[in-house]
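Sync notes, pocket subgroup
Present: LS, DG
LS reminded everyone that the earlier model was apo-only. Rerun requested with nicotinamide-adenine-dinucleotide included. Inputs:
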Amino acid sequence: MSVSYRKIIHVGAGIPYDVIIERNSLDRCGELVKNLLPNAERALIISDSNVAPLYADRVKTSLESAGYAAFIHVFPAGEENKRLAAIEGMYAAMSAAQLSRTDFAVALGGGVTGDMCGFAAATYLRGIKFVQIPTTILAQNDSSVGGKTGIDLECGKNLVGSFHQPCLVLADANTLNTLPPRYITDGFGEIIKHGCIKSSELFELIEKHGTDVNMIEELTARSIEIKSGVVERDERESGERMLLNFGHTLGHAIEKCCNFTGFAHGEAVGIGMLMMTRASEAAGLTERGAADRIEAVLKKCGMPTACDFTYDEICEAAMLDKKRRGDSINIVLLRSIGESFVHKIKCADLTDFIRGGVKA
Ligand SMILES: NC(=O)c1ccc[n+]([C@@H]2O[C@H](COP(=O)([O-])OP(=O)(O)OC[C@H]3O[C@@H](n4cnc5c(N)ncnc54)[C@H](O)[C@@H]3O)[C@@H](O)[C@H]2O)c1
């Protein structure tokens, strides 16, 4: 494993920022933030109950060494806690830490922590800065970049939120050493997605190396380059950014069908990508062979390729998707591996479209 890997990817969003991919950058967060926020005085580290005991003290020490007064707020881990009640706890901690508008928060954890800390930062005092220190493969390769923040409601995922870009992202691959194996494979769902929609080279790397941890920083760099390019061109998801939803219409539906407990997010997205590509191949919209390659790569990464729900159940759940517009829904399809497009389909036709992809 390369110990000296260091790559900085500049995200040219409305308010630009850097993603630094470097081992042990977590211990340098104080000095790195100091360059960006020299006038801030106080920082609140927000982390979940699994990640905080592992890394929060190191981040606090680094921030204090750089001269900041640093505090830690811990919330219970898990998607089921990605709720407004946890955000209220974060506001209370921000207030107790006496954060002012020039101070900042640090999201230390996976996608749940990043989405929630980002949302609390977007709304506390009408917006304070925040730093992302992602500690899962999913967060390092996807969710920490792009500025989508938010929480779940009883009736669906990520239904309340805002766009709020971080001021810095530190992807420290050493934090992945403590990640439970299931979240290693799960995180590959979004990396495979990035390859499918924009880069056949990235897809081929995963075909060749699977989840080999020695490759992770190279994959992260390519993933973040793809995501940041899309975000730069369409920060608010009015066009190209929709491509990042490849696999998500059916993936979210599968998550909903199993009440967010059976499949992890990336696993459900993987099945969604495969189902959609089988269907679009059958409809003549995708180059032949793409679905078989997706199936093979999911298997190589140890991910599921099917679920027990019926097409009717999945499509019914998909109708509640945020991307639904009246009686139509925008779905993302592949022309071939590495090339994608948005396809509008009548809601009434979705089930037949998906059923068309059932392998004889
Ligand atoms: N904002 C976006 O653009 C975007 C994109 C994709 C997904 N998401 C969101 O991301 C969330 C999923 O993220 P996730 O898979 O990272 O989930 P997560 O944050 O719940 O982390 C998964 C589990 O791993 C634990 N964990 C995290 N890092 C660890 C580490 N280094 N060592 C040990 N344990 C660790 C967590 O406590 C949790 O139990 C979903 O809520 C999804 O909606 C957001």
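DG: The pocket of nicotinamide-adenine-dinucleotide is lined by residues 48, 50-51, 54, 77-79, 82, 109-113, 115, 135-136, 138-139, 142-143, 146, 148, 157-158, 175, 178-179, 183, 265 (CB under 6 Å).
LS: The mean pLDDT is 94.
Action: DG to write up.
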